[in-house]
Each structure stands twice: as C-alpha cells, then as structure tokens.
Amino acid sequence: MGAGEQGLAGDAGVSEQVLLLGPRKALVGVLTQPAGGAAPGGRPLVVILNAGVIHRVGPNRMHVAMARTMAREGYVVLRFDLSGVGDSAPREEGLAPFESAMADVREVLDSLQATRGPVQVVLVGLCSGADQSVFYAGRDPRVVGAVLIDPSVPRTRRFYLNHYGRRMLRARSWVNVLSGRHEMFRAARGAPDMATQASSAMDAAMAAQIDAPETRALLEQAYQGAVDQGVRMLVACTADRETRLNYREQLLEALPNVRFGDRLQLEWFAGADHTFTMEAERSALLGLIVQWMREGWGAGVQAAA
Q1: pLDDT at res. 126
Q2: Minimal CA–CA distance to 122: which of 83, 76, 59?
Q3: What are residue 232's phi and psi, to 5 degrees?
Q4: CA distance to 100, 139, 165, 185, per residue, from 190 (Å)
Q5: Residue stretches of the chain with pLDDT short of 70
Q6: Cα gap 226→231, rounded to integer Å
Q7: Pairing mode, if any, of strands 121-126 and 232-238?
Q8: Please, are residues 243 and 204 in contact by the beta-carbon 8 Å criterion?
Q9: How far, CA to CA in Å, does 284 sit from each of 8, 97, 143, 258, 280?
C-alpha cells in the first residue's frame, strides 16, 4: 500500500485488499469492505476517483477515511489511481487526459463486474474527480449516484455581484482605491503585484475556461445526461476558491437548462477550504455523505447494530 495506507488501527471490522484492475492490470486500487462482507440489501459499490494528481489516499487522507467510514456502514468501497497517477501506469494509447480518465473508470467497473457480477456504482470525486464523475455518470447505466465535491461551476451575474460587493465593503479596498494602490491601478500601470499574480493566475485562467460558452454547454449536457439516467447527485461546495464559486445556488443558476428535479442535493461548506484541511470539516462532509447514502440505499451495519 502507499503512504498513509498501512495498517487498520482503530478500524476494527474493516478489511482492505490491493487490486490490479483493467485488462492491463495497470490500475492500482484498494478495496475496503466490512470484515464480514458487504451488508445485504443490494447497496451500490462506492468508487472514489483521484483529486487531480493526488494519490488515492486523497488530500489530508480524506479518501482513506471516507472508504473506511463507508465500509463500516456496510458498503464496499474502491479508491483507485487513474492512469499515470499514484501507482497506476500511464496509458500507451496516447489518449487525451479526459478520455483516458473515462476509459479508466469503465475498465474499473468492468473489472468489478467480472468478479462480483452485475454492479451498481456511486462515483465520488473532488475537484477534477467530481467533473470526471458527472461526465461519466451519463455514459454508463451502472452509475446510480455521484458525490461531487467542489466540481467546476461557471460564474454567474450573482457571483460577480457577491465578489465585487464584498470587496467594496472592505475598508482596506477603499483605502487602496483612494491611495492608488488597488490592483486595478497596478494593472493599468503594467506593474502587477507579482505575489498576487503568482497565486491567482492559474485559478483565474481555469475559471475563464470554465466560463466559456462551449464549456458551459458541455457541463449542461453532462449533468442533464446524468439526470436523465436517474443518477442521484450530492453536490458539496466550499467557498475556498473565491475566484470561481461564492454561493450555494451557483450551480443551479450557472446551468439553467438542466432539469435537476429531485435528483440533486446541494450543500454549502462556508468554513471549509477546498481540500477540507480541518478535521471538523472533513468529519462534517463524511457525515453528510453517509446520511445521503442512507437516504438512497438504506442504513448500514452500524445503524442496524
């Protein structure tokens, strides 16, 4: 196992197994399940995707905690590394990163089905893992649920009202404007603050790409495809990435053509950062996911005990 995966101290009743998945046996995953086997009742498998290029343990070992928490609820959980991430070998076909991820998820589900019989799956992802989850969900009828943590969301009119309104209310911003030290004056003079530029340029570029009409259309198509397939979605967002997302309903207003109906549950973590660094926030997120799973597929072994 990789760093942070050794042992099961404090996790009595949970067993873990390293798997090599896909036709190439090149995708490395860890299967976590109740020591006595999965709880009865036809509960779906839970499959956790990488958060960007972070190894399958997840940021702040969040994926490890999530897998073991869900296993104690009676679920079988797989967290695996996409091709070229963590311990999984890169693909040799030269696929673009997005299509490579789509192929990886399909191969993993095929491997699970080959060994366990027909499967239903809940995909879980943070950041890029959330985007990959929702795009895949509409492609495969085996996906019945998706937990999307800080997915990509285009900016809206209300986003800009919030963003600039909050800045206008800050006394420091007014002092900087009146003294000529505000960032808009620095930009006009061609002398940007290098520290600010370094910390925000990448995030701003990504946000602009997500705002593009073609990206918005693709996102609407992906979410509607998942809805049409009956996929239940839990979307949990943080206010950490201020240049991209700053209020709870932004997803709904950014994708107005998607008919979510009762397929969507939206949650807002105002005090959490993007990777849920604080233990209290991680615990709250895990509790939310467990409750959402219980509402969709019944209580697990702990609740029944």
Answers
A1: 98
A2: 76
A3: -80, 135
A4: 40, 47, 25, 9
A5: 1-11, 38-41, 167, 169-203, 241-242, 299-305
A6: 5
A7: unpaired
A8: yes
A9: 22, 32, 25, 28, 6
Question: 């101290």: which residue's tokens?
Answer: 9
CB atoms near residue 42 (< 10 Å): 9
What stretches of 87-216 adopt beta strand conformation (E)? 121-126, 143-149
The beta strands (E) that lie in the chain are given as 14-21, 27-34, 45-48, 77-80, 121-126, 143-149, 232-238, 264-269
> How much is the pLDDT for 17?
95
172: its two tokens: 């420091």
Cβ(291)–Cβ(297) under 8 Å? no
Residues 49-64: pLDDT tens digits?
999 999 999 999 999 9
How many Cβ atoms from other residues are within 10 Å of residue 84's Cβ? 15
Place of tokens 């019989």: 117
Convert 183-212 to b/e letters by CB count within 10 Å (16 or more is b). Answer: beebeeeeeeeeeeeeeeeeeeeebeebbe
Model pLDDT, residue 289:
98
Question: DSSP assignment, residue 59?
Answer: G
Q: Which pLDDT value is given to residue 300?
A: 55
Q: Which two structure tokens, joined as six digits, stand for 68?
A: 């073991």
